[in-house]
Design brief:
There is one protein chain. By secondary structure, this protein is α/β, with parallel strands linked by helices. The chain folds into 2 domains: 1-32; 35-232, Rossmann fold. It contains 8 helices and 6 strands; from the N terminus they run ααβαββαβααβαβα. It has a 6-stranded mixed β-sheet, sandwiched between helices. Bound molecules: guanosine-5'-diphosphate and magnesium ion (MG). Magnesium ion binds at residues 81-82, 100, 125.
Length: 234
């Protein structure tokens, strides 16, 4: 009988240690608190996101405010939306055309030293079909938009107003936007230039950039500018 009490105490101690180690492991791996969980927690009622792909949590530097902004990445199929977000988040370009099925969410923190802010952009890369109802539901509660056309195909430029109308119909208001004329590296095939982009952007109070996901031209600049504009709301 005397022997049983210490044995019982040893068993309880081992069980408590095992439970503690298990809880610590779960906290470190962030089980149950993926970016998608964070996003839907931040946006009650938002449609569930797929897990966001991008660097894991980066703490903001001391004295910096930190927030997340949901960004809609829209434009016709094949204009380079997926390539632009891959260039921005992963820093590389892939020549293959991988048709985006549904919506991918990618995230990247952007540091704005002047504003002393770190904005984590949650970029929702939409499938390029305007008539797909899921595209509209995924625009829900976007706080900014990147509208992309392909400078070698003028129909992708002409459809910009329809994309923006769809976004504004879903949101009920205008959000900060940047307009991108992508594939600027294909200079000889280019049909859309600076003046057309400038004109279109001015219609929506947006800014514009000629970009290339292939060379990286203006990609970082465009996303950083949008992050800045979402902060000011303009
Ligand atoms: P999405 O349908 O809008 O997501 O377009 P993708 O990102 O899948 O790109 C469609 C095709 O255009 C792919 O073959 C890409 O490699 C190519 N592409 C995308 N961006 C550029 C670019 O800046 N320059 C060139 N030359 N090709 C690009
Ligand atoms: Mg795509």
């Amino acid at each position: 009988m005397d022997l049983h009490i210490p044995l019982l105490l040893v068993i309880i101690a081992v069980a408590a240690l095992a439970a503690g180690a298990w809880a610590l492991r779960n906290r470190r791996s962030g089980a149950g608190r993926g970016p998608a969980a964070e996003l839907s927690a931040a946006r009650p009622g938002a449609p569930p996101a797929e897990p966001a792909d991008g660097p894991s949590f980066v703490p903001a530097p001391p004295g910096f405010s930190a927030c997340q902004k949901k960004i809609a990445l829209i434009g016709d199929g094949g204009v380079g939306k997926t390539s632009l977000v891959n260039r921005f988040v992963k820093g590389h370009f892939d020549d293959r055309y991988i048709h985006t099925i549904g919506t991918n969410v990618k995230k990247k923190p952007v540091l704005l030293p002047e504003e002393k802010a770190e904005i984590t952009l949650m970029v929702w890369d939409m499938q390029g079909q305007r008539n797909d109802p899921t595209v509209m539901t995924h625009m829900f509660r976007s706080e900014g938009a990147i509208v992309v056309c392909d400078v070698t195909r003028d129909q992708t430029f002409n459809s910009i107003p329809e994309w923006i109308a769809l976004l504004e119909k879903e949101l009920g208001h205008r959000v900060p936007m940047v307009l991108l004329g992508n594939k600027a590296d294909l200079e000889e095939q280019s049909l859309i230039g600076q003046s057309q982009l400038q004109y279109m952007a001015s219609r929506y109070g947006a800014s514009w950039h000629l970009t290339s996901a292939k060379t990286g031209q203006n990609v970082e600049e465009a996303f950083t500018e949008l992050a800045r504009r979402t902060l000011s709301g303009k």
